[in-house]
Amino acid sequence: MKATSTRAGHFKQSVRVRSHQLTVDEPKDIGGQDSGPSPEELLAAALASCTAITMEMYAQRKGWDIDGVEVEADYTPGERGCPTRFAMTLRLPENMPEEIARKLQIIAAKCPVHRTLESEVMFEEHVERVSLAH
Q: pTM (2 decimals)?
């Protein structure tokens, strides 16, 4: 995965993931052009989509039809002394048996992004100096 400044505007980034191209930007109120989701919004979207996929994979193995399930993830950025908070809502069909709903809630917390966010994270950073084409 690689992010490259587009130089087309403040903060706008072109992000390549495998063969996919995404635009990431900041909202206008903090100097961006709002031409794409912010990095923090992508993080919340990664959590929501990973949670939904994890539940779908589990349901598929169990032979459960959970078509139409939605996961919403909102975040509140952490400030000094306070952690970042994610608020997740799992929207399940009203006719889904309670036992299946409880199991899906347990499985939802086991998605890889959820586990990454709740664990200790380490970074390894390197700087390379390169000639940039203008």
A: 0.87
Q: d(Cα 109, Cα 105) in Å, to the nearest integer?
A: 7
Beta strand 85-91 pairing with 2-5: unpaired
71 three-class SS: strand
Which residues have CB under 8 Å from 97's CB, separation 6+?
none
Averaged pLDDT, groups of 10, the chain, 134 residues long? 75 92 93 92 96 96 91 90 91 93 96 93 90 70
Please give the helix or strand (H or E) that residue 75 lies within, else none: strand 70-76
Residue 132, CA distances (Å) to 2, 4, 82, 97, 126 in order: 15, 11, 39, 58, 17
